[in-house]
Amino acid sequence: MSRPRIVIVGAGFAGYRTARTLSRLTRHQADITLLNPTDYFLYLPLLPQVAAGILEPRRVSVSLSGTLPRVRLVLGEADGIDLDARTVHYTDPEGGGGTLSYDRLVLAAGSVNKLLPIPGVAEHAHGFRGLPEALYLRDHVTRQVELAAAAGNREECAARCTFVVVGAGYTGTEVAAHGQMYTDAQVRKHPMRTGMRPRWMLLDVAERVLPEMDERLSRTAERVLRQRGVDVRMGTSVKEATHDGVLLTDGTTVDTRTLVWCVGVRPDPLVESLGLPMERGRLLVDPHLQVPGRPELFACGDVAAVPDLNQPGQYTPMTAQHAWRHGKVCAQNVAASLGIGGERRAYRHRDMGFVVDLGGAKAAANPLGVPMSGPAAGAVTRGYHLAAMPGNRVRVAADWLLDAVLPRQAVQLGLVRSWSVPLESASPEVARVPGRPDGEPAGTRAGEDPTVRRSETGAAKDGPGGEPAKGQPGGEPARAQPGGEPAKNQPGGEPAKNQPGGELAKAQPGGEAAKDRPGGKSAQGQPGGESAKAQPGGEPAKNQPGGEPAKGQPGGEPAKAQPGGESAKAQPGGEPAKNQPGGEPAKNQPGGEPAKNQTGGETAPRARPGGEPGEPAGSRPAARAPGEPRKASKPSTAPKPSAVAEQAERAKRAKSSRAPGATRSRSPGTPAPSRSARPPADPGPEPPANQPPPGPDIAPGPVKRTDGRAAEGDS
Predict the structure, then answer these.
(1) What does pTM read for this prediction?
(2) Percent helix, strand and coil across the chain, each to the nearest 5
(3) What is the dihedral of CA 140, 141, 146, 151, to 10 degrees?
(4) For residue 266, what are the CA distances in angstroms to 44, 83, 127?
(5) I want to staple 615 with a disulfide (CB 3.0 to 4.6 A). Which of 123, 364, 473, 619 is the partner?
């Protein structure tokens, strides 16, 4: 009998806790599969400390495969669920697809950034829901402070030093508190020439900071923020956002390059496609976290509207504490439905209090209903986070200790670009890259490189997506890119003088060729058009093939050392050289008039190793005949046996097959043998008896014949 299959979609607080509890309860009695876009569980409450440079990104990322035994991890995003067929279709990070079958399905997809119909927000604001957004915000804030320090006027400096955070909940309050401390530390070491200081603004339509918490905690948090210099404006929000600033609902215009959107979250859009009863975007479930009418379907976390049994008629809020507790109850009920665990249980919770980290030793907390502030609240807050984290506790504590005694490293790495983290995204935990199945990047956001120009759609003209820049493929191509109106140094259109086509430079082939290149009359530096003197095309150069070739190149009137036409003495073709095969054979080649250093010929002043004499020292090396073994670039004192044997065998065949002086040539169109394609010679037999032994590099004297015949030059 096959084991039941359990598929969990999402590895947030609810999904991770469900997988970990099921792994402990089932113990190999079920196949558990966890589908998630990343291979880590992100501890969101500490994300503002990553943006402020206190913690490294991996400290808040807990490995799924390392902490979830007996759970199979599948990387991908669920994009379709067939409830009748009991299958989940997903897309992996490389664009491929897959399908997972299940007997029990747990939906814990989490939430995404909540958008409001405010002009310009989607194009110029950034959310704060995942590691890519936190890393981008850290680089962006660092860059703006550095650019403000180098600004020449106070207006630009003030705009770059102003950071607007919308939303005074948990996330927005912590981002503003940590951000003010981070920028103050930067300008403390490198003061600005204008004498200005970074300014952080916290906006919300609510009446007070942290409206979800007790009023005493709200007053504590607002007091700490105002003491640090944060401009807190309640009852105010953004009316319109532009590249250069924001227009507030009270009519005030604020020049800024940074807009952080922390208004809230909404459930993942995946649950909307199921066609099941919903409650404000969340899937309705019973107190056992089971979807009514679907016994195989469970939901927990931010995508589930779980009835609050302590407050009848209400649903549990979308917080990390509730999601973490949902996961444990959901796992127990899934195991009970399969007959593996105990009985089902309903979800009930007890309010354990809340903690808000305000940076440094400051915090606001009410553990077990006891309001606290100051260093005591800071100690309680960090202790709670260490206890709640499922891993990396020692590393997190070590980073906190180092941050207390060492200055922070304010550097921008540039690993995440603006268009990689659009505000409107169904997967804020995954940075968008070119070629992803969800389309092109959304374009460069506000505050990116000031040299970037944006199109009307919000996409950067020099980045992928939207209206491409002149230096990117598509749209209106750049002068330095192929297509459209090409640049003068690119192929096509009106080419540059240093590129092929059109009016070319003096050193390239084509058009009017150069004197040193084959073809036409080229320009001096580039191919095509008016070619260079050293390139082919048009009127060829004297040293290149084609047209009026040079004496040292093949074709036309060839040089004495090159093949073709009037051949050089050391090259094949036409009138062959004396040391090359074909026509009038060279003196040091088989057939015709033997070389001075070969058997039956005159003695040459220099001999090559292996019994093959070469040219005199300092002369140009002769080209090889077809089939001739490759010579070493430098003479060697020891001959290769294979070369000697091959030379003797070729000499025998040449004497027996043709008369001396016969011309040996290739048929037209036959390519010359390639140097690189010729394999190295293998060791062969000993040289034949009628072949003289190889001599040293410089022959000590005349070479005697061994066949008994007199030869010219013998002494």
Answers:
(1) 0.63
(2) 25, 15, 60
(3) 90
(4) 16, 23, 13
(5) 619
Q: Are 60 and 43 in contact (CB under 8 A)?
A: yes
CB atoms within 10 A of CB 277: 12
pLDDT of 20: 97
Question: What pLDDT, on the 0 to 100 scale, is given for residue 87?
Answer: 97
Nearest to 529 by CA among 492, 566, 563: 492
Instruction: Report DSSP state, residue 45.
Output: G
Burial (CB count <10 Å: 0-12, 13-18, 19+), residue 272: middle
Residues 6+ apart with CB under 8 A from 485: 477, 479, 493, 494
Tokens representing residue 703 in the block: 């070479």
Q: What stretch of H or E contains 47?
A: helix 47-51
Cα Dmax for the chain: 125
Quick one: which of 365, 350, 266 has its CA closest to 45?
365
Query: What are the angstrom distances between the C-alpha of 221 and each of 173, 217, 224, 285, 595?
Result: 8, 6, 5, 35, 101
Measured CA to CA, the distance from residue 196 to residue 258 in angstroms comes to: 17
Q: Are 301 and 289 in contact (CB under 8 A)?
A: no
Distances (CA, A) of 600 to 118, 609, 613, 628, 663: 100, 18, 13, 21, 20
pLDDT value for 261: 95
CA distance 137 to 128: 9
Q: What DSSP character marks residue 412?
A: -
Instruction: For the chain, list residues with pLDDT below 50.
Output: 437-641, 657-685, 687-688, 692, 694-706, 708-715
- Helix (H), strand (E) at residue 387: helix 374-388
Nearest Cα to Cα of residue 108 among 263, 326, 294, 287: 326
d(CA 516, CA 525): 11
In single-letter form, the type of residue at position 610 comes to G
Confidence (pLDDT) at 425 = 76
Query: What's the confidence (pLDDT) of residue 364?
Result: 92
- The angle formed by the CA atoms of residues 638, 644 and 647, to the nearest 5 degrees, is 145
What phi-psi label fits residue 246: left (phi over 0), alpha (psi between -120 and 50 degrees) or beta? beta
